Amino acid sequence: MGRAQRFFTNTFSGWFQLRRCFPKTLLDEMTRAIAEGERLHKGEVCFAIESRLAPLAVLEGLDARHRAEQVFTQLRVWDTEHNSGVLFYVLLAEHRIEIVADRGIVREVTTAEWDAICTQMRERFARNAWREGCLEGIAAAHALLTRHFPGNDKDQPDELPDRPVLL
């Protein structure tokens, strides 16, 4: 998608989709899925959803990946004891899903594994199956984290919010 098309898309679409695609009931289910899955591993999962990018930022070259990295920093996903934070970033206007993992996870989980989760979610979202896409994506991330970072100490604090963040 070219910069002009991205500018148009971020200016005129996406902003009205946030509550339609992610109603409170889905956010509640996602919160429970994140919390329950984190009991199985040392990872911390964070989910952020943004309706669109600021048009000026698009003109300046900001894309979904770089925005996901900004949000990773802004939400302090990197600031976990085991360097095991994972951010799901959804940009509705551009139909983009990015997963950013902290350095402890990058050493163990390949980009291809995260890309497969993004592809699966994108396919569900394309069919307006927002609930299934999110819950399956979260479950797949928990499966990877359980395999590579098993066990969760009962005393381990929940370092990141489980509730998805709407930007």
Residue share in helix:
40-55%
Strand order of the largest sheet: 3-2-1-4
What class do helices, strands and sheet pairing give? alpha/beta
Low-pLDDT residue spans: none
What general outline do the C-alpha atoms trace?
Answer: globular
Report, as a whole number of angstroms, the end-to-end distance. 23 Å
State the total count of DSSP E strands: 4
Any overview of this molecule?
The structure is a single chain. By secondary structure, the protein is an alpha/beta fold. Helix content is 50%, strand content 13%. The chain has 8 helices and 4 strands. It has a 4-stranded mixed β-sheet, with helices on both faces. Helix 3 packs parallel to helix 8. The longest helix is centred in the last third of the chain and has 19 residues, at 130-148. The protein is globular and about 50 Å long. The mean pLDDT is 90.
Relevant terms:
167 residues, alpha/beta, four-stranded mixed beta sheet, 4 strands
Summarize the structure.
50% of the residues lie in helices and 13% in strands.
Q: Secondary-structure map with pairings?
A:
Elements: H1 3-12, H2 18-21, H3 24-38, E1 44-50, H4 55-59, H5 64-74, E2 85-91, E3 96-101, H6 103-106, H7 111-126, H8 130-148, E4 165-166
Parallel strand pairs: 1-2, 1-4
Antiparallel strand pairs: 2-3
